[in-house]
Write a structure and sequence with these properties.
18% of the residues lie in helices and 31% in strands. The protein is an alpha/beta fold and 310 residues long. It folds into three domains: 93 residues, Translation factors (Elongation Factor Tu (Ef-tu), domain 3, Beta Barrel), CATH 2.40.30.10; 109 residues, 3-Layer(aba) Sandwich (Rossmann fold), CATH 3.40.50.80; 84 residues, Ubiquitin-like (UB roll) (Roll). InterPro entries: 2Fe-2S_ferredoxin-like_sf, 2Fe-2S_ferredoxin-type, 2Fe2S_fd_BS, Benzoxazolinone_Detox_Enz, Beta-grasp_dom_sf, DmmA-like_N, FAD-bd_FR_type, FNR_nucleotide-bd.
């Protein structure tokens, strides 16, 4: 865990840019484009945010955080941080890394989903690799990073799309690319679903479509079942409207969770026996089919009993 000082700057579109640095100016753990860190905003409030700075900058982490009126506390707590405050930050983790096998990288960021794309563009530009970046927002006035992109050293590779000017034409963007293009998308679920669906229709191989979710509408309700935490010797009943995490917490077994939406993977646990009912956006279809892992914050059991390695 790192204790870092905050430099704060307000951007348009209700976005705050937090720059985090060590008080003594020492280097921070390295990260690659697509990585995120967990901000420990309180003892019980931990949230993941994408790193949007240049991976070559070893002295700063940068996070662009939208003030979300639907927040469950994370973005509001992050926006309450002030210049000079200290915050506990995890080491970077990368679940959305660039695939070096691609001849070209097509980056699509919608709204605050542009943040991981900024780091990707910086890394690709520094490496001299082929890429293009599309930034879609409702309006220019609400596009937090438009000035940064217009002045970036790779500005000629950037296209801006605003709903009240010229909307993003996904069919054109996904078709006008070199062979062996990998597409990366982050933003509202509707945008990501549209990109994924259209890319598949255009015969993109599944392993060339990459996405990162910021939020997910998960439904934890279902039939009650029993969970055995084998390593801890604890057995609990998970009620119809209860998550596995909640049931285990009542029995005194606290599970490390961050997003609570099946996105970040922090509560990923091995399954020793039983069949998971996957509700997450983290595991791939192949991993879900294997049935040997589960996200405890949202997923359930298809049968009456699940034994996990916890």
């Amino acid at each position: 865990m790192l204790t870092l000082h905050i430099i704060r700057r307000e951007l348009q579109g209700d976005v705050t840019l937090l720059t985090l640095a060590h008080a003594d100016g020492i280097e921070l753990p390295a990260f690659s484009a697509g990585a995120h860190v967990d901000l420990h905003l309180s003892a019980e409030l931990v949230r993941p945010y994408s790193l949007c700075g240049d991976p070559q900058d070893r002295h700063h982490y940068q996070l662009g955080i939208l003030k979300d009126s639907r927040s469950q506390g994370g973005s509001l707590a992050a926006h309450a941080l002030r210049e000079g405050d200290e915050v506990q930050v995890s080491a970077p983790r990368n679940l959305f890394a660039l695939d070096t096998r691609g001849n070209h990288s097509l980056l699509i960021g919608g709204g605050i989903g542009i943040t991981p794309m900024l780091a990707m563009a910086a890394e690709l530009h520094a490496a001299g690799r082929s890429f293009s970046l599309h930034y879609a927002c409702r309006s220019r006035s609400g596009a937090a990073f438009v000035t940064q992109l217009e002045n970036a050293p790779y500005a000629e590779r950037v296209q801006l799309h605003f709903s009240d000017e010229q909307r993003l034409n996904l069919a054109s963007v996904l078709s006008d690319v070199p062979p062996n293009t990998h597409v990366y998308v982050c933003g509202p679920s509707r945008l990501m679903e549209a990109v994924s669906s259209l890319a598949k229709n255009l015969d993109y191989p599944p392993d060339q479509i990459h996405q990162e979710c910021f939020s997910a509408d998960v439904q934890i309700q279902g039939n009650a079942f029993e969970v055995v935490a084998a390593a801890s010797g604890i057995t609990v009943q998970v009620a119809e409207n209860q998550s596995i995490v909640e049931a285990l917490a009542l029995a005194g077994l606290k599970v490390c969770v961050s997003c609570k939406q099946g996105i970040c993977g922090s509560c990923l646990t091995d399954v020793l026996e039983g069949e998971p009912d996957h509700r997450d956006s983290y595991l791939t279809d192949e991993e879900k089919a294997d049935g040997d892992q589960i996200l405890l914050c949202c997923s359930r059991a298809k049968g009456a009993r699940l034994i996990i390695d916890l």
